[in-house]
Design a protein that fits this description.
Elements lengths: L1 H9 L12 H14 L3 H18 L11 H8 L2 H5 L5 E8 L2 H8 L1 H17 L6 E6 L2 E7 L3 H17 L13 E8 L7 H17 L5 E5 L2 E5 L8
Parallel strand pairs: 4-5
Antiparallel strand pairs: 1-3, 1-4, 2-3, 5-6
Helix pairs in contact: 2-3, 6-7, 7-8
Length: 235
């Protein structure tokens, strides 16, 4: 709240017509004006705020506004990952089913909108400490720390159902979207390696695809499981 107040107080320093279409450009513009007035302390404050905003933006996917692969990599190789302990960490790789057909049938603008809405739907059901990152193309990663295996499966399957039941026809008549999920859980009882967990999630994702799509695949004890186990699949 303090930053917003400072910006509001300093906006009067801007000349008419100065660029300020977003918070980043506003900080940069105010810093420039304050520097010409010799107010270096306040100019530095706004330049630092602009730098912080630019850095935060570099960790977000420009299309979906979810975190990007860079943020995911930093988290998995940083102190947050190292702090994970019991009951463990879940990583889910999520892929939109038959997404090429969406682009081919409805166009890339509709495809982009689908990606944005899927990212929002995936984020909705996550615990506060979890996050969604765009892994690449039509694939997302869900990182859920401090969760046991059973709850992780429930979170992943709830996300699958939420996407399948979303009213996609509001975008285009005939449009339907489903996801397949590969969920890898580590209980934290032994040192975890992010690369190994991602490989497991990726292998389980392909299992979900082979099982008919619109599925969640995961490991339970020593065997692989897929849900829902029967019934029609969409997408």
């Amino acid at each position: 709240m303090a930053e917003v107040s400072v910006v509001a107080d300093d906006e009067a320093a801007l000349p008419p017509g100065a660029p300020g279409t977003d918070l980043l450009s506003l900080h940069e513009s105010i810093a420039g004006v304050l520097a010409t007035q010799g107010d270096w302390r306040r100019a530095y404050h706004h330049l630092k705020s602009a730098f912080d905003l630019a850095r935060a933006g570099s960790l977000r996917d420009t299309l979906t506004s979810s975190f990007n692969r860079r943020y995911l990599d930093q988290w998995l190789h940083g102190p947050d990952f190292e702090r994970v302990s019991e009951p463990g960490l879940a990583i889910a790789l999520v892929d939109l089913d038959l997404f090429k057909e969406v682009n081919d049938t409805f166009g890339h603008l509709v495809g982009d909108r689908v990606l944005r809405e899927v990212a929002d739907l995936l984020q909705q059901g996550l615990p506060a400490e979890a996050f969604c990152a765009r892994y690449g193309g039509e694939e997302f990663a869900l990182v859920i720390p401090d969760v046991d295996a059973a709850r992780a499966v429930r979170i992943a399957d709830t996300a699958r159902v939420r996407v399948a039941r979303h009213p996609w026809t509001r975008i285009r008549t005939g449009l339907s979207v489903t996801i397949s999920v590969g969920l890898a859980h580590e209980n934290g009882s032994e040192p975890m390696k992010p690369e190994r967990q991602l490989r497991r999630a990726d292998a389980l994702l392909y299992m979900a695809k082979r099982a008919g799509r619109n599925k969640v695949a995961y490991r339970e004890k020593e065997s692989s499981q897929v849900i829902p186990r029967s019934g029609p699949t969409a997408g």
